[in-house]
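Fold this sequence, please.
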Amino acid sequence: MDSLAFLERGGGKLHAVYVLHGDEDFLKRQVLAALRALVFGADGNDFGLSTHAGDQATFAAIHDELQTLPFLTPRRLVVVENADPFVTRHRAVLEKYLAEPAPTGVLVLDVKSWPSNTRLYRLVASAASIGCKGPAPYKLPDWCVQWAASRHGKQLAAPAARLLVDLVGADMGQLDQELAKLAVYAGSSPRIEAADVDRLVGSSRAENIFKIFDALAAGRPGEALGILDHLFEQGEEALRILGAFSWQLRRLAQAARLRGQGLSPAAALEQAGFPPYTRQAAEQHLRHLGPGRADRLYDWLVEADLGLKGSSQLPPRTQLERLVARLSQPAEKEARKRP
């Protein structure tokens, strides 16, 4: 079962053994919290909870915990963290345990790998084998919208969700933390807009990115590269810098496309989502790029994104410097290069 489906339905029937498999720790924490509520009740205490390290735990110790009668709770919940080595060492006895589990104990195995071609996999109920893998990156904005509504009681606007993912990245735990802060920041307002995300989450980073674009549009590539170097020296991650780049460049590309369809510069920039106070600078950026290079912005962003995620052997810093160099070239110079 997928973890998001498990969380949505609230756990369902209680099983003797659960396996949380995958590499998204945030989803594992959420599923484990749901299991604790299912085992102990929403207002129950955690006297019956114990956790063990998978590289040190023995089956004998785990089995004794599961068989011991609970105290002040209806059941015991025994969690083996990073349980891959535990499962490897004790696979045979785990298979036997599943045939006759403890009547008042619930075992949770937290693993990275859970291959479907094993007997142990087939013995665990499908509803208790919970995949904790994050959504594909393109689905994360939709998840943010749903999570903001279900967990924080706020309506997250679609542009705000896209900007949040651009600025924060694909770490679901960090996205949840930022959503919690945004919910508090929004106060009595039921809706979180892109401007709220820009102010609260990306203000300092976005401010530096805007300075980079201002320097590029003014023909000062050295200054733009200097700001980029400063971001790296401050410990900024390359993918997060690219996220802030992406937010700006995608809107510029959209505005350029709308200009090509006959809209005025003001109308194109408004429809592309530029606030009034940024439109003069954005129009200068478009003139600097020229229509030919503006059409290539999406391609450059995809290339940079894939490169930072492993398709290029160049250092991340070099890849972003190359992107800045491409953006720094004036439209007139680009035009003279064409045959």
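Residues 10 and 36 are 11 Å apart (CA to CA). The longest strand covers residues 105-111.
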